[in-house]
Structure formats: structure tokens, C-alpha cells
Design goal:
The chain is of the alpha+beta class and about 450 residues long. The chain starts with a strand and ends with a helix.
Length: about 450
């Protein structure tokens, strides 16, 4: 593998460029017209424009990206996260033209990409799942019957995707009748598939995910868990590694995550996501077949470069270490700094006129913006991921408080004020949060 095309933008594109450079592999980055002045374009060995600002005509244009890889003599494509990272058709197209897809097999992307099929697979593998349908809901009448069986509250979810789109918390039959059609329409718009399923809503659940990795020899390892309960509209805001959970629960999550991945012969990076209830019971909800936005906290506490590991596994190299070698040391927190109104949370694109990122010991900033950079309105509003490390959780929290105060971003509104409130809230300091905590307390 001598040259890799990066089918993405922003901080993850830059993150991949850096990993490739340290592996002595050339990088080619694709970009839209809106990103012509971006840092990835400036720092990659080569950059090629694949279309206009509209992502459907650039970053989501499968044929243009495949063509860009072929005309630049690339050996492989790294999709990052988002865009085409979990597109089984794209992964198959790469294979068909002789390009290595730096990710899992298309069939695994397809199985886990459909939430109903993912639940069925998990059940078959012996992994606990949330009580609910596990089947497509074909009509409103079916939805009403199932909700009565499992008991309110329930969650309506889109079978074909995630990120909160098509998802509804429903507390009563009246609310179900009112929201079912709108959830189906939202799923159709977001994923081209209106299929919904219903599952029991776990009250005050924690959202905890396990990082897994498989190599081509059949070995599957885990790299510990991440706490992802701080969410707004089902979008993660702050993540930690490890999670504040009982050791018995932790090891059960690791066991089931590895079991699920082993059951399908999974290769490359993946994240198995669970809900954990107040009694410590855990339930599989989905698997993301890609590198996660929050992967840096795992890197900080394990010392492993997960993006490099993705590339090495794609090259066919087996793990040179065992599960016993993966140690969790200390604590890490990641804050997603977005260009958005801190009260209304509306996107705030525009020009960054002043920028000071934090520094000092145990601080990492993953970002592709710079002073004078114009944040375009066409894509995700994330400006940076600020990651800190401490020998223990309290030390990490104190460092996080410091870096929030040090960070200066002017010209656009950001959610930095929200982190200052979170990091000083007694519930967060005690580790007693759940997936609805942020919306119930601070937004």
C-alpha cells in the first residue's frame, strides 16, 4: 500500500493524513469546491476536486471518488466516518476495481447498517438486546399492538440509520398515533428508507460503547469502553474513557462486544453500542462499522493509534499483540466543539477571526480549522475535538475545565459555554448521568 485516497473532509481527513505520513504512505484527499482552502487540501500529498459544495455531488458521489482514486493510482480508500464510511455499495465498488477498502467487509456493513437485521444477528449470537420488535413495523396498527405488549415508554427508530434521525421517544398511545408518520417521513428523507422498528425505552439508561477490532487472521480484540451518555437530540456532546461503571458490568460489555464481532468474523475497526440500565443490565442497540468520532479517548487511555491500526489491518497484517497487552490507564475526556448557538443550538457558520487552541500537558486538539478559515454551511458544524488526559477522572475533569477557559474562538458562536457548565455540575462530577440528563438539566 503506497498511496491512499481519503474520501472525507475536515479533522478526520487530517487525522488520516497524519497516520499515513507516519507509515510512509502517500495521501490523496478529495475535496469539494467549498473546501478548496481547507487544511487537508493544503497538507495532503495531493488533492483532487470531486464536485461542488453540495455533498451529494461531491463527498457522496461514489463514481467521482472511485474515479479520483483510480486516476491518482491509489491502492486503497479510507472513508473516515460519516459520508460513505458505512456504505456497503461503496465498499463493494472499491473491491470490484481492485482498491482496498480500509474498513470491514461489505456484508458486515450491510448487516449492521440495518438496525433490525443487527438486532436479529445479536440475538442469534447470544447477546442481550432491548425488548421490542426486532422486526419491521409495517403499519401503525402493528406499532400500537407492539407498544402495548412491551409497555410505554417506547422508542421509535429508523431501521436504515442512526444519529437520531427518525427517532422518537413515545410515552403514550396518543403520542404514538401523532408521531409515527412523521418519524417514517424523516427516516425516508434521511436514509431513503421509511422502515421503522420499536423497542422498549430504558429509563435513565447509560449509553456505553465498546471499541472492537478484528484482523484478517480471525482474531478480535477490544480496546475498552467509552461513556457516551451526554447527548443532545441523540447526538453525542462529550465522551469519556473508561466509563463510570461496576467492574462486573464492564467485563460483561467487553465479552458481548467481542462475541458479536467474532460471530461474524469482523475485520477492522468497529464499535458495539449498548444501553445500561440502573441495575447494571446491558442491552445491545447497534454496531457502527467504522472509526468513531470519539476514538481519541480510547487512544489516550490505551496508547494505541487506532487509525494506523486500521491501515495495517487493511494491509493484511495480523495483530502483533494480544488482549492481555491492551491496558486501560488513566482517564480521558473529549469535548466536541461546534459552531452553533450555545442556547438555541442553531448552526453558526462563518469566518473564524480569532483562534487560540489550548495546550499544555495531556491536551490534544483534533481540528482542521485555522484563524481566517471560513466554516461552510454545507457540512457538520464541528470545529474541533478537544481531548484531555488525567491519571484519574478528577484530574481529567480539572484539565478539561482549564482548556475550556483557554480556548478562544471568535467570529462564530460555539458551544464552549455548555462545557463549562457540564464540567462543574455535581451530577457530572459524580458520574451520575444518563442519555436524557443533558436535555433534562441544561438545554
Amino acid at each position: 500500500m503506497k498511496r491512499v485516497l481519503i474520501a472525507n473532509r475536515g479533522e478526520i481527513a487530517l487525522r488520516i493524513i497524519r497516520a499515513l505520513r507516519e507509515l510512509d504512505i502517500e495521501s490523496v484527499v478529495v475535496y469539494s469546491e467549498a473546501d478548496s482552502n481547507s487544511l487537508p487540501v493544503q497538507l495532503a500529498d495531493r488533492a483532487i476536486c470531486v464536485g461542488p459544495s453540495d455533498p451529494t455531488r461531491s463527498y457522496l458521489n461514489l463514481k467521482s471518488i472511485i474515479t479520483a482514486a483510480l486516476i491518482t493510482d491509489c491502492d486503497a480508500i479510507h472513508p473516515g466516518y460519516g459520508f460513505l464510511a458505512e456504505n456497503a455499495i461503496f465498499a463493494e465498488m472499491c473491491q470490484d476495481v481492485g482498491l482496498t477498502f480500509i474498513g470491514p467487509e461489505p456484508e458486515h456493513i450491510r448487516i449492521m447498517g440495518n438496525k433490525i437485521e443487527a438486532v436479529k444477528f445479536a440475538k442469534k449470537a447470544g447477546v442481550s438486546v432491548v425488548p421490542g420488535s426486532g422486526e419491521e413495523i409495517r403499519s401503525l396498527d402493528d406499532a400500537v399492538d407492539l407498544a402495548r405488549d412491551v409497555g410505554y415508554p417506547v422508542m421509535i427508530k429508523a431501521a436504515a440509520g442512526g444519529g437520531g434521525r427518525g427517532m422518537r421517544l413515545v410515552r403514550s398511545e396518543e403520542e404514538l398515533l401523532r408521531t409515527f408518520d412523521s418519524a417514517a417521513r424523516e427516516a425516508e428523507i434521511a436514509f431513503g428508507d421509511s422502515t421503522l422498528y420499536i423497542e422498549k425505552c430504558i429509563i435513565n439508561a447509560r449509553h456505553i460503547e465498546v471499541q472492537v477490532f478484528g484482523d484478517k487472521s480471525g482474531k478480535v480484540l477490544h480496546f475498552g469502553e467509552r461513556e457516551c451518555s451526554l447527548q443532545r437530540r441523540h447526538q453525542k456532546v462529550l465522551e469519556e474513557a473508561p466509563a463510570v461503571i461496576d467492574e462486573k458490568v464492564r467485563r460483561a460489555l467487553w465479552r458481548d462486544a467481542v462475541l458479536l464481532a467474532e460471530s461474524m468474523g469482523y475485520v477492522n475497526a468497529g464499535t458495539v453500542e449498548f444501553l445500561v440500565d440502573e441495575n447494571g443490565n446491558h442491552y445491545f442497540i447497534e454496531m457502527n462499522t467504522r472509526i468513531q468520532v470519539e476514538h481519541p479517548v480510547t487512544e489516550m487511555v490505551t496508547g494505541y493509534d487506532l487509525v494506523k491500526l486500521q491501515i495495517e489491518v487493511a494491509r493484511g497484517k495480523p495483530f502483533k499483540f494480544s488482549q492481555e497487552d491492551v491496558k486501560i490507564r488513566g482517564w480521558s475526556i473529549e469535548m466536541r466543539v461546534n459552531a452553533e448557538d450555545p442556547v438555541k443550538f442553531a448552526p453558526s457558520p462563518g469566518k473564524i477571526v480569532r483562534l487560540i487552541f489550548p495546550g499544555g500537558p495531556n491536551v490534544r486538539v483534533d481540528s482542521a480549522v485555522y484563524q481566517g478559515y471560513e466554516i461552510p454551511p454545507f457540512y457538520d458544524s464541528m470545529i474541533a475535538k478537544i481531548i484531555v488526559y488525567g491519571k484519574n477522572r478528577l484530574e481529567a475533569i480539572k484539565t478539561a475545565r482549564r482548556v475550556v477557559r483557554e480556548t478562544v474562538i471568535e467570529g462564530v458562536k460555539t458551544n464552549l459555554p455548555l462545557f463549562e457548565v457540564i464540567l462543574n455540575h455535581p451530577d457530572f462530577v459524580e458520574g451520575s448521568v444518563h442519555v436524557r440528563w443533558l436535555e433534562e438539566n441544561l438545554t
